[in-house]
Amino acid sequence: MSLWSEIHEQAAVLEGLLRTQAGHAAEVAAAIAARQPAWVLVAARGSSDNAGLYAQYLWGARNGLAVALATPSLFTHYARPPRLAGALVVGISQSGQSPDIVGVLAEARRQGAPTLAITNDPGSRLAAAAEWVLPTGAGEERAIAATKTYTSQLLAVALLSAALPGGEEDRQALAGVPGAVAATLRLEEAMAAAAARYASMKQCVVLGRGFHYATACEWALKLEELTYIVAQPYSAADFRHGPVAMAAPGFPVLAVAPGGAVCADVVALLRTLVEERGVDLVALSDEEEALALARTPLRLPGGLPEWLTPVPAIVAAQLFSYHLARAMGRDTEAPRGLSKVTRTW
Description:
- By secondary structure, this protein is α/β, with parallel strands linked by helices.
- It has 2 domains: 3-174, Glucose-6-phosphate isomerase like protein, domain 1 (Rossmann fold), CATH 3.40.50.10490; 180-327, Glucose-6-phosphate isomerase like protein, domain 1 (Rossmann fold), CATH 3.40.50.
- The protein is 47% helix and 15% strand.
- The protein is built from 14 helices and 10 strands.
- Helix 3 packs parallel to helix 6 (148-163), helix 3 (46-63) packs antiparallel against helix 10 and helix 8 runs parallel beside helix 14.
- The protein is globular and about 55 Å long.
- The relative contact order is 0.15.
C-alpha cells in the first residue's frame, strides 16, 4: 500500500460508500431532522477540518443551516465550553482518536445536544462519544497524507446533505461522483508533467472560493505535507484584502476555479493577477476562461453540479502534489516529522 495506490483507490472507495451508506445516511438525516437543530457545530483537525469547511458551505447553501467550526481548546485547556443549545454537534475525524475532538462531542452529549461522528473507524473513541455514526468506509489508509479518507468524508457530508430537508432533489447527482473521480485519475500524466515545472518552487498561494475554499485549504495542506514548501490558502475574496500585495512577476499562484456561482469573481481576480501583476498561474478548472489565463492549465472533467466538484478537484490536486513531491525528491510515504494519527488536546 502506498500513497499512489491510495489516491487511485478513491473511485472504488466512493462507489462503495454510496452503495453501503446511502440508506444509513438517510436514517441519520431523518433522526437529525426530527430534533430540528437550529445550527451546526463541526469539530475537526487537519484534513478533516477542511471537510468541515466544505460542510459549512454545503449545509448552509443546500440545507439552510448555519454552520460554525469549533474551537476545541475551549473544551479542553480553557475548560470553558460554549452553550450548545439548539446545535447539532458533528465530529469529523479519520481515526476518531484525537482527544480534543472527542472532548467536544462528549461535552455536547453532556449538554443534551444531538451528536454525529463522521469517521473511518466506527469503533473509535469519537464514534463511542456520538449519538449517531456515519462511517466513511475508506479502508485502512497507511500513507500519512490523507487522500481517500478525505474524499470519503466529503462524500459523507454530501450524502447527509442530500438526505436532509432541502437536499432531496440532489440525490441523483451523487451517483456521478465516482465516475468523475475515475476520469480525473486518468489525467495523471498531465498532472505529473505540470507539477514537474515547479520542482524549484519554495512558496505559493492557493486560491479558491465558495465550495472550493475547502479545496484550496486541502491542496495547500497536501503541498506542505509532501513537499515542505510554504503554501498559504486564501479565499479569493480575502486575498484581495491585503495579501494581494504579495503578487509579483513570477510569483506562483495556484487557483481552484471550476464553473459555478463564484467562478466569474475568481476569474476576474486571476485576470488581474496575470495581466497586471505577472504571476505564474496554475489553474485547476473546467472553464475555458480560467484555463486560458494560466501558464499551467489543469483541466478538470465536467458533468457534476458545483456542490460536488470539490471531490474530483481535490483528487487532481492530490496528483499534482504527489508528483511535485516526487520531482523534488521528497519521500511521499514518510513526510518528515509526521505520523498517521495526531492527538491534540
